[in-house]
Amino acid sequence: MNREEILAATATELSQKIRAGETTVKEAAEAVLYVIEEKEETLHCYVTIDKEKLMAGAEAVQKKIDAGELSGPLAGVPFALKDNICTKGMRTTCSSRILENFIPAYSAQAVENLEKAGAVIIGKTNMDEFAMGSTTETSAFGVTRNPRNLLHVPGGSSGGSAAAVAAGECFAALGSDTGGSIRQPASYCGVVGMKPTYGTVSRYGLVAYGSSLDQIGPITKDVRDCAAVLYAIASHDQKDSTSMKRDCRFMDALKKDVKGMKIGIPQDYFGDGLDPEVKKAVLDAAGMLKENGAVVETFDLSLVQYAIPAYYTIAAAEASSNLERFDGIKYGYRTKEFEGLHNMYKKTRSEGFGAEVKRRIMLGSFVLSSGYYDAYYLKALKVKTLIKKAFDEAFERYDLILGPVAPTTAPRLGESLADPLKMYLGDIYTIAVNLAGLPAISVPCGFDGKGLPIGLQLIGNCFEENKILRAAYTYEQAAGQKGR
Amino acid sequence: MAKQYETVIGLEVHVELATRTKIFCGCSTAFGGAPNTHTCPVCTGMPGSLPVLNKQVVEYAVAVGLAANCEITRNCKFDRKNYFYPDNPQNYQISQLYLPICRDGWVGIETQAGKKKVRIHEIHMEEDAGKLIHDEWEDCSLVDYNRSGVPLIEIVSEPDMRSAEEVIAYLEKLRLLIQYLGASDCKLQEGSMRADVNLSVREAGSGRLGVRTEMKNLNSFKAIARAIEGERQRQIELLEEGKPVTQETRRWDDNKEYSYAMRSKEDAQDYRYFPDPDLAPVHISEAWLQQIREKQPEFRDEKMARYKEEFNIPDYDIEILTSSKHLADLFEATSALCGQPKKVSNWLMVETLRLLKEKDMEPEEIRFSPENLASLIGLTERKVINGSVAKEVFEVLFEKDIDPEKYVEEKGLKTERDEGALKKSIEEIVEANPQSVEDYKNGKEKAIGFLVGQTMKAMKGKADPAQINTILREFLK
Description:
The complex is a heterodimer. By secondary structure, chain A is of the alpha/beta class. Chain A has helices at residues 3-8, 11-19, 25-43, 51-66, 109-116, 159-167, 183-189, 223-233, 276-291, 304-322, 340-352, 355-368, 374-397, 420-425, 431-436, 465-479; strands spanning 46-49, 78-82, 120-125, 172-177, 192-195, 215-220, 262-266, 295-299, 400-404, 440-447, 453-460. In chain A, strand 10 and strand 11 form a beta hairpin. The longest helix of chain A is centred in the C-terminal third of the chain and has 24 residues, at 374-397. Chain A starts with a helix and ends in a 5-residue tail after the last helix. In chain B, 40% of the residues lie in helices and 20% in strands. Chain B contains 15 helices and 16 strands. Chain B has helices at residues 55-67, 164-181, 221-240, 286-295, 300-310, 315-321, 325-338, 341-358, 370-381, 387-400, 404-411, 419-432, 434-441, 446-458, 465-476, and strands at residues 5-16, 71-72, 75-76, 79-82, 92-95, 102-111, 114-127, 131-135, 140-144, 151-157, 193-203, 213-216, 248-253, 258-264, 274-275, 282-283. In chain B, strands 2-6-7-10-1-11-12-13-14 form a nine-stranded mixed beta sheet. Chain B has a three-stranded antiparallel beta sheet with strand order 5-4-15, with no helix packed on it. The mean pLDDT of chain B is 91. Chain A binds chain B through residues 84-86, 92, 94, 99, 102, 104-106, 108, 203-208, 210-212, 238-242, 317-318, 320-321, 324-327, 329-331, 341, 345, 365, 368-370, 373, 377, and chain B through 41, 44-53, 80, 82, 84, 86, 89-92, 143, 270, 272-274, 277-280.
C-alpha cells in the first residue's frame, strides 16, 4: 500500500491490511507523521506528540502481530488521545497551565484496554481547558483549527481529537463527553463520535470534570471503527465504582437493517435557534432511515429547556470539587513567589487556571455553598431525575431518538468566548443525554452552504448502543460518501 | 448564695478502624512505614484516580453501630467535605453528612452518680488525612500521605453527659465495645481514638442549653478530665462576669492546663458538602446485616456474667480481666490449657499487671502466648520450679514469650530435690551459724527461718523451702 492508500483507510481497514501483511504498523505510523508534519503547524490538533514512543510502539506491536499474538480489529492502528486521559510517562495537561508539566505515573484503564487491543499512541490532543468549553479555544496552549475550514473552530471540548481524525493526523481517537464534548466536535469536523452509556468505559485515569456525567468514547472515521473502538475500551473496572458489567458485543450491530425500528423525533429539538440548513440535513437523514424501513414520527420530549441550567449547575458543582486537588502542593504548577500557604494556593490557582475554568469553579462553589445548596444543586438533581424519566417514557415508545447534534455548524474562531451564555446554549441537544446517562452518536449527515459538516444525533436507551450503531451504520451505508 | 451551674457535654469520637487496607484503595494501613511508601494514585489525590470502598469498613461501622444500639441506614451515602489543606490530597475529605451509616443509638454507663444512657446521634465513616511535618532546618513543611485514606468512624453523642466522670465512663464503654469487636485498638495516646469535647454550662435547673465550645487535642483520659474542668471554670467565670461565651473551637494545652481559641463560628468554613459522585450508595441488605449480627462477639457485660458462673474467681478479678478483650482472651485460653483458672487469674492479676504498670504498657501489648503461660503454671504445679524461680521465669516470658520448659532446662533452674545434696548444704550452713542453731534450740522459732534462707541462698534459690525446713528440723533434733 502506498501512503495515500494507507491514509484513505479507516482504522479497521488499516488493521486488516496490516494483519494481512499488505502494509506495516511502521508504514502506518510514518504516514500519520507525514500528515502531522504537513498540517499540524496550521491545525494544532496535538498538545504532545511522542514520535519515538510511536515508532517504538509500532515495532513492538508489529512483532506481536507477526507472532500471531494480536489479531483484533484495531491491532497496529495509530491513535490519538484527548489530553485529559492519563498516559503513563506521557505528559497529560488537560490543556491547562496548572498541569503543563504533569506526567502521570499510570495510564487510564481505557488506554490500557486500547493498548491491549494493539493500538499505538501518537500523542495527546488539544482540548478546552479541563474539558470546559465548546470550541477548544479555552485551551491554555492555543486554538485548534477545523480541518474543513481553517477559520472555524473544531468544536469542543474534544476538538483536537475530532480535528486529528478529520485531518488524518491519526486513524482514530479517544475523547471525553460530559455535555456533548465528543459528539459536537465530531459533528463540526465531519467524523463519527460516540458517548457510551454512563459506566461503560472506566473513568479511572480520566481527569474528572463532572464525575457523574463524564464518559470516554471513540472519535472515528466511520461507524464500524466507532463500534470497534468502543468494544476495545469498554470494560468492567474494579477501580471505578461507577463502572458496569454489561454486554459489549458492539461489532454485532453493524448490519444495514432498520426495518421496523421506531425512531422518535422530539419536536422541541427543531424549534427556534436551529439553523435551517442543519434542520434540513437532519430531517433528510431521518427521511433516509424511513426509506430503509424505520418508523419515524415526531413527539414531545419536553423538559429540554431545563437541561442547560441543570447541567451547568451539576457539572460546575462537581468540577469545583474535582479541581480542588490542583493546588500547587503535590504536582503541577506552583506560583513562583508567595507568602504563606493561603497566598500560595491563591496565586497558584489564579495563575494556573484560565477564565472559563475559574468561572465554572466559582459557579460550582456558589451552588454548593450553605444556604444555596437546596435551591440550586438539589433542584438541579431533581431536574436530572425528571429528564431521565422523560427519556424513559420516550423509550417505551421508541427504539431511538433522532435530532441534530448542535443548533449550527462550527462557529468562526473567536466568536464564542465573548458570550459564554450563548456558548452554553449551543449544548442544548447534547446535554440531556449526559444528565440521563444515555448513549448517543454523532454521524456526519451533510454540509451547509459554507461546506461545514453537519452531524446527525441518534440517542438510545441505556445499554442500547447496538441499536444506535445499527441505525448509524445503516444511514452511513445508505448515504454513501454523502456524510463524510 | 452562689449560683449553681450544670455542665452539659457531648462528644465527637474518632476511631481509626483496624482494617488491613485503606478505606478507598488497597494501600496498607500499617503504622510506621517510611514517608509516602503506603500510598498510591488514589490516596495521594492524583488526577483521574477514583475511590473504591473497602467493605470491611462498612462491616466494622455496622458492628459498632449494632453494639451501640443504633439504627442502621440501609442505603447510606458518602459526601465530600471540601476544604483546602496540604494534608488532604484531594482538598476534600470523603465523609458522610446527609445519610450516615448509623443513627439514634445509646450506650449504658455507670458512675457514682448512678446508671444512665448516653444517646448516640450518629456514627459515620470517613477517611483520615495525611501528616504534616515541619522541617526546622529547611524551614518548610513536608507531607506524608501514609495515613491518608486510613478508615475512621466518627461517633457523635447527644449532649447527655454532665461530668468528666461520665465522659470517661462513656469513652471507656465505647473503647471496650470497639476493642471487643476487634474494630480498633482505640489508643488515645497514639491517636487511634480521638475525642473532641463539646461543652456548655447553664444554671442548674435551666431547660435551655448554653453556648458551647468544642475542645480538641485531648490525648489521654487525664487530659480530658482536666480540660473539662478547665473549660467549665472558664465558662462559669465568663458568665459570672456577665460576659457571653463565644461559640468556637479551642485547643487544649495539657502542659499549661489551658485552652486557646482556634477559630470562632463566624470564620467557620463552608464545607460545601455534596454527595460524592464517584461512589455508589452503599446498600446494606438484610442478609448482610444478619451476617454481621451473627458475628458480633460476647461483650463485656455478658462475659462478666459468664465468668461468675464458670470460674471460681473473685468479682474484682472478673472486672479487671474483662476490662481488656486481650486480657480476657488470654485468661480463657490459658485456663482451657492448664485447667487452673484461679492460678491463671493470679498470674494475670498480680505479676502481669505489675509489669504492665512498670513498663507503662496496655494489656493489648502483652506478647506472651497462653501456651507458654500454661506451661509455666504446669512447672510450678508439678513443683519442678519453686515460686520465686517461677517469677523470674515469668519476667523473661513477659519480655520474650520464651518456652518455660526449655528455658528452665537450659538455665538449670529446676528445684533440687536430692536429699543428699540438700543435707550437704544444710550441714555447712549449720556449721557456719552456731549462734542461730543455739537460738533455735533455745526455742526461738524465728532462727529456723534464717537457716532455711541461708540454705536457699547456698542452693542459689533452686530448692523447695518447705523441703529444706523439714530436713533442717530433722537434722537439729
